[in-house]
Write a structure and sequence with these properties.
The protein is mainly α. 61% of the residues lie in helices and 2% in strands. It has two domains: 213 residues, Four Helix Bundle (Hemerythrin (Met), subunit A), CATH 1.20.120; 89 residues, Winged helix-like DNA-binding domain superfamily/Winged helix DNA-binding domain (Arc Repressor Mutant, subunit A). Strand 3 and strand 4 form a beta hairpin.
Length: 330
């Protein structure tokens, strides 16, 4: 049921300096996650929305349905509280909390944090005892449970607002991420005693977060108007150097042919010159048009195209060896 307040609540964030961690033997009995949770509360207590009803007798049982008792003394967990909703899903979709259910969830969250602060205030100036540490961790877990329930059941708000918002050149994933962060911040600051639904409060915060994303994207595009293209940024030095080497190799092949440094026969020289137009002026496009097929070269020297291929391969091997021994070796 929804807890009524007798006075207007106010935002509270109280720190309790001077509180020390419990002894090593107490910490050794805790799990790693519980030790970290305890350390977070001792070093930087989380704020809460204060409510006058928190000091009223019987409010604990009214909110949680059970007393804060340990079913197992070895584990810092209270008896499981009465569920706010029987099931979080209905027909495959997340249920929507009523105003009364939201009130209970937020009061559970803030009351649990209020009890954590009260434990820290009482322990100020010394170390936490085992009993205080156990109760602090148990109340912190109750706060986390309430917060997790609120966040899970309100996550669809972010997607719904993102679908309604039409922002150009904004990454949808970034919008949703920023909206989720806004939802988490809204949970920390929402005051359910004012009578508004949480969705009314959080939707405004989510929309503002979308606007921030749009402004940030706009500023980024003003500084970087074009997308990063690795092909544009990559240096073409190696490509140009390779082209220069290829041209030099062609010139060297011409020199080898003219001087017959490779020891080619007349037939081999004819095949190479006709097949690759090396006897023509050096113009790439024109040379490609003047190259002859194996069959055409075979008609010139009077052999089959298969024989032309054999002669060509033998001549190319000779040219390769001459090129390796001369130009490339240098």
């Amino acid at each position: 049921m929804m807890v009524q307040t007798t006075a207007r609540p106010e935002q509270g964030r109280r720190k309790s300096p001077g509180v020390g961690m419990p002894r090593a033997d107490v910490l050794a009995r805790l799990s790693e996650s519980d030790r970290e949770l305890l350390r977070q509360w001792v070093e930087s207590p989380t704020g809460y929305v204060a409510d006058a009803s928190f000091k009223r007798q019987g409010v604990e049982a009214e909110l949680f349905g059970v007393k804060a008792e340990f079913p197992d003394e070895g584990v810092p967990r209270f008896v499981e509280a009465t569920p706010i909703v029987k099931s979080e899903f209905r027909n495959g979709d997340l249920v929507t909390l009523t105003t009364a259910q939201e009130g209970v969830a937020f009061r559970r969250l803030n009351y649990a944090r209020f009890r954590c602060h009260r434990i820290l205030n009482r322990a100020r100036g010394g170390r936490l005892t085992k009993s205080e540490a156990w109760r602090l961790i148990a109340w912190a877990h109750r706060a986390l449970d309430a917060r997790s329930l609120i966040v899970r059941l309100n996550m669809p708000l972010v997607l719904a607002m993102a679908k309604r918002t039409r922002l150009v050149n904004v990454d949808p994933n970034e919008m949703i991420s920023e909206g989720n962060m806004a939802l988490l911040r809204s949970v920390e600051k929402f005051d359910c005693s004012r009578g508004f639904k949480f969705s009314t409060y959080s939707c405004r915060a989510i929309l503002k977060s979308f606007s921030r994303v749009a402004m940030r994207t706009s500023r980024y595009r003003q500084v970087f108007p074009t997308e990063f293209d690795p092909a544009v940024e990559q240096s073409d030095f190696l490509i140009r150097k390779r082209e220069d080497v290829e041209e030099d190799c062609v010139d060297e092949i011409r020199r080898i042919l003219l001087s017959n440094a490779a020891g080619l026969t007349d037939v081999e020289r004819t095949v190479i010159e006709e097949r690759f137009s090396l006897n023509e002026p050096r113009e790439a496009e024109a040379s490609r048009r003047r190259t002859k097929t194996l069959e055409q070269v075979g008609d010139i020297i009077g052999v089959t195209k298969e024989r032309v291929r054999q002669i060509q391969n033998k001549a190319l091997d000779k040219l390769k060896n001459a090129l390796m021994d001369g130009y490339l070796a240098a």
